[in-house]
Amino acid sequence: MQLVSLAQAGHAVTSDSLNAEVDFETLQLPTMEGLDGLLAKKKRVAKWAPDRNGSLVLSSRANWFSSSKSSKKVPSHYVTSIIDGLKKLYVKKLKPLEVAYHFSDFVSPLLANSDFDAKPMVMLLGQYSTGKTTFIKHLLKTSYPGAHIGPEPTTDRFVVVMNGPDERSVPGNTIAVQADMPFSGLTTFGTSFLSKFECSQMPHPLLENITIVDTPGVLSGEKQRTQRSYDFTGVTSWFAAKCDLILLLFDPHKLDISDEFKRVIASLQGHDDKIRVVLNKADQVDTQQLMRVYGALMWSLGRVLNTPEVTRVYIGSFNDRPINEAPTGPVGKELFEKEQDDLLSDLKNIPKKACDRRINEFVKRARAAKIHAYIISHLKKEMPAMMGKAKKQKRLIDNLEDEFVKIQKEHHLPAGDFPNVEHFREVLSGYSIDKFEKLKPKLIQAVDDMLGYDIPELLKNFGNPYD
């Protein structure tokens, strides 16, 4: 910087400049030309966002994730360093365990760098015409490419709405093979699913912080379920593991939870902390009807969500129209506005908690991989050395619940961490148990060390950026 000051003061810059007799105390500080203009330009770009016609308008959503009251500025190198640390720990200590015991086939595909670097995701689930696409349009204050809205089942595919340089739709087969996108794991569901999957990109200040997943309406009736050409519940479960928030939308006129919807909600097991229930279009019924609708919804959820606690239900009308005061009056309008503010504050906190969520999901995955290794190695140990392998395998698969209990007692593991028995049995039937690996204590110990020492040390070294 002294050399820059000397040059700007008119001195000749040579190898002996700093050794020359120059009065540095009176020397002016170096000036950075154009810096003020660049900063001012960036502030203008952040504050203004393009509307649907392409003209620049002041975005009311632009300050959602930049409010000084709601979140503290997080130094980017903190988060990057923690995420990079998790990447290294995964490759070095967790991935060898997953590969050895086929964790990707039973539970979740192997992680890539893009999975760690992905933006926080919000997924919307619900039966058809409950307002999922309209909800997204309400958040963005504009429609996204490929959006269809109507009273019939209009959204027939999974649509990922994310930030991009221009407005366009990218087919699922293309997006699934891009290394910088966190969707490579969806290739396991086949071409039949990828043809029903697409990515909508558009420049938007909200999408710079989160990615939104729109889903097809959950149908009712056995006929509609069997006509899907892909595993709808499996895809939903895959997205649930990646998402930071899951919104279950209900309509006052569609409170029945169909068989498929029940299976979808059951597939969200283990992600209860991410689920938010939304009673949408609440301004279409009067106060008395709304009270009965709320009670009926809570009763229906109580039979599906196996939790003793009462689920929080957000009541509102998430669309571009002003709230209809005629049915509920001014009291109803005030209630809806408060509920909407509560839900939007949840959405606003997602980027702030993204780093903590990454660590939480990583630890959860490590525990699941460890238990999976115990299960596979135990089944391998139970197989005979020579004769009767087929009969023994059938017996083990049929009595899988009892085997889980044995493993739990032998290794002192919590019952809640074990996988779904039916799903595990279905995948296991396609394998020869005799071909599995025996227990490798070194791999288990590496994961234990990672959970007990490496991750706490990582957080200690870089500190918690959100404190």
Automatic annotation (TrEMBL):
Q: Which GO terms describe its biological process?
A: endocytosis; endosomal transport; protein homooligomerization
Membrane topology value? Peripheral membrane protein
Q: Does the keyword Transcription apply?
A: no
Taxonomic lineage of this organism? Eukaryota, Viridiplantae, Streptophyta, Embryophyta, Tracheophyta
Record GO cellular component, one term? plasma membrane
Matching entries from InterPro entries are given as:
DUF5600 (IPR040990), Dynamin_N (IPR045063), EHD_N (IPR031692), G_DYNAMIN_dom (IPR030381), P-loop_NTPase (IPR027417)
Signal peptide extent: none
User: Which PROSITE patterns does this one have?
Assistant: G_DYNAMIN_2
State the protein's name: EH domain-containing protein 1-like isoform X2
**Which superkingdom, per the lineage?**
Eukaryota
The record's subcellular locations are: Cell membrane; Endosome membrane
The UniProt keywords, alphabetically, are: Calcium, Cell membrane, Endosome, Membrane, Metal-binding, Nucleotide-binding
The record, for Pfam families, names: DUF5600, Dynamin_N, EHD_N
Q: What organism does this protein naturally occur in?
A: Nicotiana sylvestris
The reply to whether Nucleotide-binding figures as a keyword in the UniProt entry is: yes
Gene of this entry: LOC104228505
Q: Where is the Dynamin-type G domain?
A: 116-351
Q: What GO terms are given for molecular function?
A: GTP binding; metal ion binding
